[in-house]
Amino acid sequence: MLGLIRSLALCCLFALGKSETYCPIVNNKGYDRRENKNNLRIMQYNVEWLFLDYYKAADCPGNGCTWKNETHAKEHLQEVANVINKFNPDIINLCEVEGCDELNSLKDKLSSNTYESFMIKGSDTATGQNVGMISKINPISDLYRNDNRYDYPIDGTKCTYDGSGSEGISKHFISEFVLNDVNIVMISLHLLAFPSREDRCVEREAQAKVAEEIIESYVERNYEIIVIGDFNDYDPNILDLNNDVPISQVIDIIKGNHNDKFTLYNVNELVEQKYRYSNWWDKNNNCYSTNDELVLIDHILLSKGLYDKISNVSIYHGYYEDCERIDSDHFPIILDIVL
C-alpha cells in the first residue's frame, strides 16, 4: 500500500510539473538590478509561439504552429535568446508566450543573471498565447489584468462590419514601477490579429477603448505611461515601409486622439521610414519575404515625460524571414530612455 501511495504521489507530481505555470506575484517589490539606474532599455518582441509544453487546443508544438516538435521549439527558444543577448535590455516585453515555464527557460539562456520572469494568465484559450515580461527591475506591485469589455461597434467607427457584440483584451497585463522617483505604468497588450479584416476592425476598436480607460485611470494618478506590444494595426500618422494605413482607429484611440485627457507618442516616429517594419506577413504564402510583405504592427507608446527622454530607438532586422527561420516572424523594437 505504501508503495502504491508513493507511486501515485510521484505520478501526481509529474502531472503537475507538466501543467503550465504563471508568475504574476512580485517578490522583493521594486528591487532594481540594473548597473546604471539612469538608463532604461526596453525591448518589445513578439517571439512567435514560444511554447515548450504541448498545448492541445492549438496543437503546439505540433502541426498547429510554426514549431513542429519539442526539439524544434527549443531551437527557436535558443535563437530568441541569442537575439535578446545582443542588446541586454532591462525590460523585455514578450508576446505569444505560453507561460512561465517558457519565460524561465528563456531567462536561463540570457547572458545576464539579473532577470526575473513575470506573467499573468490571459483569456485566449484558443491559442493559449499570453504576454509576459522578463525584467531586471521588479515592479512595485503584482501584475494584474483588467477584465472589462466594451461594446462594438464603438461610436464613430469607420469599420464597415455590421455585426455587434463586446470585446475585452484577452492578452495583456499591467505592471507598475518607480524609477528615479517617477511613477510609471507599463501596459502590455497583444490585440486581435488581421489588420485588414472588417470583423476584427470593430473588435480591436473595442479593445482599444478598454485600453483607453486603463490609461485614463493612470493619467489621473499622475503616472508616466508606457503602452507596449503587438497592436496588430498601423499608425495612420507614422507610416511604415510600405505606407500601410489602418482601416480602424485603434492607434488613434490608444494615443488619446479621441479624448482630451491624455496624449501618447509613438516611438516608431523616430525610426527612419525605410526601417519601419516589425513583422513579415507572407501574403502570397510562398515562404519567401519581399519588401512589400513587411509591416509595422508592433508599437511602444509613451507619455510626453518619457518620450522627451528618449536617447535612441531602433528595430533590429538581423535575420531573413522565410519558412525555414527559427527566430520569429517579428523583429524586436529597442528603446533607450535616459531617466
UniProtKB/TrEMBL annotation:
GO molecular function (one): catalytic activity
Pfam families the UniProt entry points to: Exo_endo_phos (PF03372)
Domain Endonuclease/exonuclease/phosphatase: 44-330
Coiled coil residues, start to end: none
InterPro entries linked to this entry: Endo/exonu/phosph_ase_sf, Endo/exonuclease/phosphatase
PANTHER family: ENDONUCLEASE/EXONUCLEASE/PHOSPHATASE FAMILY PROTEIN (AFU_ORTHOLOGUE AFUA_3G09210), ENDONUCLEASE_EXONUCLEASE_PHOSPHATASE FAMILY PROTEIN (AFU_ORTHOLOGUE AFUA_3G09210)
Protein name: Endonuclease/exonuclease/phosphatase domain-containing protein
Species per Swiss-Prot/TrEMBL record: viral metagenome
Organism lineage: unclassified sequences, metagenomes, organismal metagenomes
